[in-house]
């Protein structure tokens, strides 16, 4: 039976949702390895909508995270509340500002952030079963709140974000764009992706390594 991976999305677009390249590269690599996947997203309003041409907030417009995430998943997506860790062998969370705005309030609260309750509940089963958990770009900032203290992660070398991770009880490891950080004790794999990448090929190298390591840990 093929391995099953849950992919958690936070909208569609780098500035107010999930990073599109990171998500697509993740799904591509899973497919290349013959691993089946299912996408999930919370059925909530986005914090705000950003014009990706100007990077300015669009006043008076509201979008739903699940509906926007369905754009990335080509409609094959379920509400986050439906995610049951018993049905999957691992979980991956791509980055994008939606992680810091919709899955949490890190964008405004920094190390005082709170994480969406539905995300905590969805990840709890993976943590308890020691199933692999992959996070990329800004998403590793969630780890101390989601999974506990003392877990090694990376966002690359951003001093503000790495400082916030440390302040919340996490362990940040400096990492290049093409590499990964693996906390074997807690089954957590992270990579900087577009926290450092300047080209899609750079992001792909680290993301493919992350997915490959997740695949190895599922065996």
From TrEMBL:
<dbReference type="GO" id="GO:0016829">
    <property type="term" value="F:lyase activity"/>
</dbReference>
<protein>
    <recommendedName>
        <fullName>Glyoxalase</fullName>
    </recommendedName>
</protein>
<dbReference type="InterPro" id="IPR026041">
    <property type="entry name" value="ElbB"/>
</dbReference>
<dbReference type="InterPro" id="IPR029062">
    <property type="entry name" value="Class_I_gatase-like"/>
</dbReference>
<comment type="function">
    <text>Displays glyoxalase activity, catalyzing the conversion of glyoxal to glycolate.</text>
</comment>
<comment type="similarity">
    <text>Belongs to the peptidase C56 family.</text>
</comment>
<keyword id="KW-0456">Lyase</keyword>
């Amino acid at each position: 039976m093929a391995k099953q991976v849950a992919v958690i999305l936070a909208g569609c677009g780098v500035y107010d949702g999930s990073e599109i390249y990171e998500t697509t590269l993740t799904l591509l690599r899973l497919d290349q390895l013959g691993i089946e996947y299912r996408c999930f997203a919370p059925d909530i309003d986005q914090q705000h909508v950003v014009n990706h041409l100007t990077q300015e907030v669009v006043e008076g417009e509201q979008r739903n995270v699940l509906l926007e995430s369905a754009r990335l998943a080509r409609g094959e997506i379920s509400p986050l509340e439906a995610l049951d860790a018993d049905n999957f062998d691992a979980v991956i969370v791509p980055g994008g500002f939606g992680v810091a705005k919709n899955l949490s309030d890190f964008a405004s609260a920094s190390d005082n952030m709170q994480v969406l309750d539905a995300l905590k509940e969805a990840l709890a089963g993976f943590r308890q079963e020691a199933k692999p958990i992959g996070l990329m770009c800004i998403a590793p900032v969630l780890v101390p709140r989601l999974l506990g203290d003392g877990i090694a992660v990376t966002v690359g070398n951003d001093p503000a974000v790495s400082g916030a991770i440390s302040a919340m009880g996490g362990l940040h490891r400096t990492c290049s764009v093409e590499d990964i950080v693996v906390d074997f004790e807690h089954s957590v794999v992270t990579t900087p992706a577009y926290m450092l990448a300047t080209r899609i090929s750079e992001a792909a190298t680290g993301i493919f390594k992350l997915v490959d390591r997740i695949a190895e840990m599922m065996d």
